Amino acid sequence: MPTLRGLQAHVRFPLVLMLAVVAMLVAVFGQPARPSEAGPGSSTTAIVSLGDSFISGEAGRWNGNSLNIFGTRDGTDRAARCTLGIFCSYDATRVYGSSYSNGCHRSDVATIKSAGISVNEKINLACSGARSVHIWRASQGGQSFKGEAPQADQLLTVAQQKNVKLVVLTISANDVSFSDHVINCTVSWILGLGPCHEAQQAQLLAELPGAMNGLRKSIDEVRAVMGAAGYSRRLPLLRRGLQLGKERSNAAHHRQHALRRSRKGRAVPRRAGLVERP
Q1: pLDDT band at 264 (very low <50, low <70, confident <90, very high)
Q2: Torsion angle, CA of 134/151/62/108, rounded to 10 degrees?
Q3: What's the rounded mean pLDDT across residues 169-195?
Q4: Is the alpha carbon torsion for 30, 35, 38, 44 positive or negative?
Q5: pLDDT value, residue 241
């Protein structure tokens, strides 16, 4: 059976892939308007999140096994309600609300909900599993997803009714089949089938141009929607993402560091950021 160190050696994506998950923060400043007007002139301020599971709050349950001898998830699953740590019920709507039923999984502790920004409303439109095509407006080729309209169309409604101060977007992971790559390499390692990185890297590189085009269009769609709602100022961008690849000269160091982190039960990927000013 291959070792965990072997898995780390087999799973090697392109040198630096910044778009596996791309987060964009868009600060939106409206034109002066009469207080009675909606949109930029509304007295109700809001911040909004769009995108995929990276920001919808998919992991909001902290779902895992507790250390008690009964095998329940008491203390490790926020959806659990237990008596004496033995008799437990699990209701995911306690964490995801109504979004649990369609699988969007918008957590009550999602990034937008926990942001320390003073506004009247914090609105989460992100949906687990979303791709770029689920961001674009329907009139621009966007598609509904899990029974909901494209997120840009939903954003337009919010922007017309409220004074939106910030839009947060994460997208691209599902455009490059990120979870499939991780699953395929994990299965390959468990079954002892040998290195997976060459086949997975080839597929990822084939998908990357389309993902980048989808990201560009998603950014354009957000700008178009906000412009249509009366927000005229050009939007400054902050893009953040997961750095999946490493410089080859430091590959061994990063694999050892990832192994140590894995043994301690912490997430391996590290975040990287880039500030882009108009």
Answers
A1: very low
A2: -170
A3: 90
A4: positive
A5: 46
Judgement on whether residues 81 and 182 belong to the same structural domain of the protein: no
Q: Are residues 186 and 224 in the same domain?
A: yes
Counted domains in the chain: 2
**Where would I find the H helices in 24-87?**
53-56
Which two tokens mark 236? 């400054």
**SS3 state of residue 22:** strand
3-state secondary structure of 23: strand
Q: Which domain holds residue 67?
A: 58-109
Task: Choose the final residue of a domain: 109, 135, 152.
Answer: 109
Alpha-carbon span 38 to 201, nearest angstrom = 48
**Shared domain check, 83 and 153:** no
For 64, 79, 266, the CA distances from 175, given in Å and listed in that order, are: 28, 30, 26
Is residue 155 over pLDDT 90? yes
Distance separating alpha carbons of residues 156 and 171, to the nearest angstrom: 18
Tokens encoding 226: 């906000």
Pick from 158, 156, 152, 199: nearest CA to 180 = 199
